[in-house]
Amino acid sequence: MIHMSNVSKIYENGAVALDGVDVDIEKGEFVFIVGASGAGKSTFIKMLFREELPTSGVLTVNGHDVVNMSHKEVPYLRRGLGVIFQDYRLLPDKTVFENVAFAMQVIEAPRRLMQRSVNAVLDVVGLRDKYNCFPAQLSGGEQQRVAIARAIVNDPAIVIADEPTGNLDPDTSWDIMDIFKRINKAGTTIVMATHDRTIVDTMKRRVIAIEDGHIVRDELRGGYGYEA
Ligand SMILES: Nc1ncnc2c1ncn2[C@@H]1O[C@H](COP(=O)(O)OP(=O)(O)OP(=O)(O)O)[C@@H](O)[C@H]1O
C-alpha cells in the first residue's frame, strides 16, 4: 500500500528532514509515526499525499509512483487518500454538511449519492444532528470529527493523519481514536503521526519511530518509547 525505498528529503534551505528511509506499510495496517519535534514526522506524512516530494528515493502510495507522476495524476492519488490535520482545516463559511459534501463535489459525485454518503459518514462520526452548524459553533472534538467525515466520505484506501488529537483533551482524543479504530477495522489503512504517548502505548499497534530523519525503531505492537 505504501512503499518507501531509500527516501530522503532535503529542504531548499539544506535541512535534512529524512535520510534514507525504507518502509513498507500493508493494506489494513494501523501505524503510528512517533519521534521528537523536528524528527521528520510531518515530512514523512506530507510526502504520502505529495504535499512534499522526496529529494531522492522511490515512493509508491496506493499503486501510484509519487515521484514520477505527472501533475494531472495528483488528483487521482489524492482521491484514494483521506487526510486529517491537527487544526481541522474546515471551511468556516460552510456548514458541517457542506464541508463534507465539498469533498464529493470535487470528484463530481452524483447528487443523490452525495446526500446518502454524507449522511452515512456523519453517522459514523456521530454528528448527523449537527449537519447544519458552522465550524465555529462546534467544539474542537466535533470539528475534528467533521474533518474525519470529510476524509472518509470518498472511501479512501488510506487515512493519513498528522497529530489529529494534538489540540484535544484526553477524553475527546479517545473519541477520535475510537472512530479511527472503527475505520481501520473496516479495512482502511491508517497512518498517524502523534506525540500522544498514552494513545500509542494503549493501542499497541505498529510504531515507526523517527529520529533525525532516520527510522530508529519499527515494531508491530509497539509503544511510544520516548521520555516526554
Ligand atoms: N518547509 C520546510 N523548509 C525547510 N525546512 C523544513 C521545512 N519543513 C520542515 N523542515 C525541517 O525538516 C526537519 C523535519 O521537520 P518535520 O516538520 O518533518 O518534523 P516533525 O517530526 O513533524 O516535527 P513536529 O513534531 O515538531 O511537528 C526539521 O529540521 C524542520 O526544521
UniProtKB/TrEMBL annotation:
Its main location: membrane. It is a peripheral membrane protein. It holds the Pfam family ABC_tran. The keyword Magnesium does not apply. It is found in: Cell membrane. GO terms for cellular component: plasma membrane. Residues 2-228 form the ABC transporter domain. Keywords: ATP-binding, Cell cycle, Cell division, Cell membrane, Membrane, Nucleotide-binding. GO terms for biological process: cell division. GO terms for molecular function: ATP binding; ATP hydrolysis activity; transmembrane transporter activity. Homodimer. Forms a membrane-associated complex with FtsX. Belongs to the ABC transporter superfamily. Part of the ABC transporter FtsEX involved in cellular division. PANTHER family: CELL DIVISION ATP-BINDING PROTEIN FTSE, IMPORT ATP-BINDING PROTEIN. This is Cell division ATP-binding protein FtsE. It comes from Selenomonas caprae.
